[in-house]
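hey team, just a heads up i'm posting the complex here instead of the shared drive bc the drive is being weird again. everything in one block, sequence lines first with there labels, then the predicted structure for the whole assembly after. its two chains so it's a bit long, scroll down
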Amino acid sequence: MKFLGQKAAQAVDVELMGKHGYAIEQLMELAGLSVAESIAREYPKGRVLLCIGPGNNGGDGLVAARHLHHFGYIPTLFYPKQPSKDLYKNLLHQCASHQIPVASDLEAEVSKCDLIVDALFGFSFSGAVRPPFDSVLRTLGQTAKPIVSVDIPSGWDVEQGDVSGSGLKPDMLVSLTAPKKCAEKFGGRFHYLGGRFVPPKMAKELGIPEYTDASQCMKLEHPPIQQRL
Amino acid sequence: MKFLGQKAAQAVDVELMGKHGYAIEQLMELAGLSVAESIAREYPKGRVLLCIGPGNNGGDGLVAARHLHHFGYIPTLFYPKQPSKDLYKNLLHQCASHQIPVASDLEAEVSKCDLIVDALFGFSFSGAVRPPFDSVLRTLGQTAKPIVSVDIPSGWDVEQGDVSGSGLKPDMLVSLTAPKKCAEKFGGRFHYLGGRFVPPKMAKELGIPEYTDASQCMKLEHPPIQQRL
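-- predicted structure starts here --
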């Protein structure tokens, strides 16, 4: 299995929506669903705080929140920077239809929840973390509550890992489509792969292992296979 | 659980995409996925012929074909009337990316396959079946191969059942969102419910039973609960 660099990850996304004709709504639905299914495999039902970023990683988180509700969890959103794009507005609207609240006091929510989903930044992230996300990451870096990161632990460099010292140490990482290079540095308990929409030729090129059931996620060997070769 | 009439089913769809802000691509993705998951619960891996109609029921079938491929089945499409709408063109394109062939000889494909998916007409259907679908339905009405109908057995009246004598006797029915009235006349072995995207207030109004796991489908009691009350 290949661990993708930032450019390769971006190229995969472009190919899925261009050459293969996927709508972003489809990819996000299946990605977010795979995050929710991964969580349902490992954590008991309870209160889940989803920290939502301003881009597609946040969109995946909004989808995951809705599916977690359907799976019997009690999700709450923390969504400090809500973009005006219809895609995100609609996903947030669907959460509202599912009576999923949006919280404003992060510290209070962290103390109340059983699990945190980090859907702040994905593989497009680079550079420094700007406010208000710097303080969000500080809070997530200090809590003892288990954190599930969507695709990338937020604040980590997509390829190098936690070089800026964000301190985020997720308990679970759900890699989407294929793991990114920073996943080699992941030291948590559960590494899952989701995003089961990769056409066969592309899956072969990326070395994606075969899913063996009819679910949307697969547990990867831990520590990652590549580290042990 | 309510068994919906045609107008009620149409109103549910309007509410999901209007009031609750869902994109058709999301609903279709989850509906088609629930069909594929239902099949994976009951039938061994093998050749699946998906008969695709010109509307949204056909779209659900195109999505199901792709997920069936991912689940290890060998899907083939029969798609005699391909609409020019981007939604369907893109779904077909995704099937092509998954190397799912489109067949032209229905009789030959029926004889080769292990299972048939009827994704011809859904809850919008009314009136007479026009060519080429009249001959497609005759073929499906005569085969001994098991048939899985998506939401409605095609040719059946949405409320009254097989009043026109289509002769279609599906082995499995996957009701989407909520069963339609004709499902009371379903006499096959497996009745599933899919389309796990109904917000809680609406689900309560429709009397949708609680899903108990993290999958996209649920097996309904058979014969349908309502018949036994």
